[in-house]
Amino acid sequence: MKSGLHRVCLLAMLLIGSADARAEFGGIGRAPTASELQAWDIDVRPDFIGLPAGKGSVAEGETIWAQQCASCHGDFGDANHVFTPLIGNTTADDIRTGRVASLKAGGSYRTTFTKVSSISTLWDYIRRAMPWDRPRSLSVDQVYAVLAYLLNLADVVPADFVLTEQSIVQVQSRMPNRDGMTRDHGLWDVKGRPDTRNTACMRNCLPGDPQVSSALPAHASGSHGDLASQNRPFGAVRGTQVGAAATPASADASATSALPSALNANGCMACHAVDSKLVGPAFAEIAKKYSGRADAESYLASRIRDGGSGVWGSVPMPPFPQLSADSVKSITKWIAQGAPR
Amino acid sequence: MDRDPRAQVRKAPENFLDPELLRSIRTRGLNEQRRRLIRGAFGAAVGALAATARAAEPDAGDPDIVNPTPWSTTLGKPVAFKPYGEPSRYEVALARRQSPGLTSVAQASVSFAPLQGMFGIITPSGLHFERHHQGWVDVDPSRHRLMINGLVGRPRVYTMDDLMRLPSVSRIHFIECGANTAMEWANVAVPTVQYTHGMLSCSEFTGVPLSVLLDDAKFERPKAKVVLAEGADGSGMTRSIAIERALDDVIVAYGMNGEMLRPENGYPLRLVVPGVQGVSWVKWLRRIEVGDQPYGTKDEVAHYVDLMPDGLLRQYTSIQEAKSVITTPSGGQKLMGPGFCNVTGLAWSGRDAIKGVDVSFDGGRNWRPARLETPVLPKALTRFNCDWTWDGKPCLLQSRATDKTGFVQPTYRQLREVRGTRSIYHNNAIQTWRVDASGEVTNVQL
Q: Can you tell me the ipTM of this complex?
């Protein structure tokens, strides 16, 4: 407990400190303008403070979704090839009760809608960060529309719904996990109480012999590559040699890879991998497809700049008009060489 | 038992190993196949010479002592040959690594710090773990701004020039991702300490106390309850931080380990929130808003919520409670043989300084206090060491941290009793490493 006197002193110090501070910091910092505040202050709170007026329908949202979101999240928001599913595993009963029942049953399949308690969160996040490779490219009305579509996929609103700054308030009262959060824990407050209570016993602390209940199964021993190469070849210990297993591709790729740096620098690897299909086709497959074609490099260069769909499927690739000619060339040349690792 | 493989080789008849195999042993140690090859070669050599290993060339000596080495017989490289220095070319084993299969895209992913080979408490900046949600960016510092708005008497905009003119502090703190050790909640899932505990780093950070900036902006003292921190990258990462904490020891940092922050760690400006999970240490920090309630951001509602057995999600869990781990010997390593072994590891607490660390060699039945190396700082990594002579028998190694608040790091059983196994975040259970008779160390749970 702090004494009264102590508190008075502390307060005096704070007051003096801040008065001094302002005197001292003359010439440092300035006030933001109204337009600067408007540009950056875009956060939306659970009580909807910060939410701009606007509207968007489920139907409008469906079009935006197909063009700008489905490639990563799937047509119905339930894909998991890029990120965990947004939609799925919520029920009409959850919408009624405001608690997602599957979470109580262990939550083994958690989608975004099974967890999210506040609709403002999704509005704020889509506005600030989606589409992932082109954040902040959606208009306010587009954010309303695409969120309306997601809400419809989650059976929270009907297909003819229009989401606005007004109607979003009613939607909040239908969010499946709206009452599923608790702040009853000691991990927020500086002085919060812990929920476990071990003691520092030093002698004969166990009733019997300790039994191993879990160990890595033999078939998983190579999952993280050759551990010998992840420890120094000298010193107090050595790394365990695990099979002839190559180190995981992702691990040391940057050190020795033939990959043109432009691919990582421009976000291509968010959708492409060298040997496997992600959102877009594997670069090795692209290389194979055009290996016989004389104008392969110039064709691919235009595809990279212009984007589009139809060659590998209905999912479109975004255009990259801003890529420098050198970057494009380094990529197309590498593909023409067969996309070596 | 494996002794130093080079010592073993040296005692044998000269040149009985082919140079390729010898090089491979020097860099990778001995494995079964190599051992068989040596036995074969050795047998032949011994047959020919009718001699034992011990008897061979009694005063030949270690060639690295007896013969001149290239580095002692040539002129070295000039100063500033590498204007920005880098590690020795022999130091390639310790690198940041991803855990295969953990995430599907590398811009929303994690790379783990190689704790298995690090010393002391400071993480080399190039080995600092990474966690990005929308890739990392290299921000032009001359175009970077920090805005302070919300419940303040005078909103502010600062340039980097402004911020670096203000009074600064330098403090050593650990940063741990809330999801560190997440893969191990229900069972053993990954082989080494890099993957079990490697979302952990510790640096000396330099910057302006956030309280100085909040005062400069005349924040509204009784009304202010929370600050929102926001990043300048594509994810526009946002997190709520309690005002008591913001005024306590939070730093708006530009410096890390004597240089500017690395781009992967938020260059040129990041928030340092001592004791709190890494996601709140917003990188590329561009805005602080003062508010009267938490903001319910994506990473406070959809993620970084801890699922409890009753189906409720604990929201705004922030503090990283006391935790420790033995880094050597640890999973995926192999002891050189019976005899002396220095057991070393790291301990930390988001609530205060570490008071003590105990080490057990019998799976938690009996414990011995470890030595804490200085400095022992609040909310910083603390290095511990413990002398040990291994008798060649299987054993179970554990470490257990106690912090200055008296909190003792829990066992898996204690943690699961309260939180179940599905909470993903804030796993601070005692780690067990099993040493088998061959000296191989593996990750196990009791």
A: 0.86
